[in-house]
Design goal:
single chain; alpha/beta
Length: about 190
């Protein structure tokens, strides 16, 4: 990665128990020279605080699509323009469904719909196995892939709910490898 170019990764953190892993993800990516913009759903804030992610990223964390701090900019449009790569990690079933159906009712979905078409979009699902395997979720995953989103598949593991199966957030090393593969190709 060139020292003159510090890519901006927009990290969208959604309502999954795996949201706490965003702290380690941000810390690792910052150490590798990436600028991290963080967007969170309200549900994600139940699992990890915005302040934690703000301190680690060194940037404001965006929570509300209607909060416009600077009257010269519309946050979700400006955030989309600044994005070199989008990563949704963890990607909840709810956010996946919203994106598959074109909803823009929060800072994450609004920003994603405003992204320039050439911005790569990665998502790492994290949810209960039955939710992940549900035909509705599988249909939504296919729809996102048709819209050029790249899935970083969940792993099989003991889940927070006590079930065992596919649905745990991919290992952070796997997520970081996918990000670096994109920037190395570029």
């Amino acid at each position: 990665m060139s020292s003159s170019f510090y890519p901006t990764i927009t990290l969208a953190v959604t309502g999954s128990i795996s949201a706490y892993k965003a702290a380690d993800l941000i810390s690792t990516l910052k150490k590798r020279g990436y600028n991290i913009q963080v967007l969170m759903t309200e549900k994600a804030t139940h699992f990890i605080t915005p302040l934690t992610l703000q301190v680690l990223s060194g940037n404001q964390v965006y929570l509300d699509i209607m909060a416009e701090d600077d009257p010269r900019y519309v946050n979700h449009i400006e955030l989309a323009k600044q994005t070199d790569l989008l990563l949704i990690a963890p990607a909840s079933a709810n956010t996946i469904a919203k994106l598959a159906n074109g909803l823009a009712d929060n800072i994450i979905t609004g920003t994603i719909l405003a992204l320039p078409l050439n911005v790569p979009k990665l998502f790492a699902p994290a949810m209960n196995t039955k939710m992940y395997e549900n035909p509705v979720t599988q249909k939504n995953l296919l729809t996102l892939k048709e819209f050029n989103f790249k899935e970083i598949s969940p792993k099989s593991s003991l889940l927070a709910c006590g079930d065992v199966g596919k649905g745990a957030l991919a290992d952070l090393d796997t997520i970081i490898t996918k990000i670096e593969e994109y920037f190395n190709e570029k």
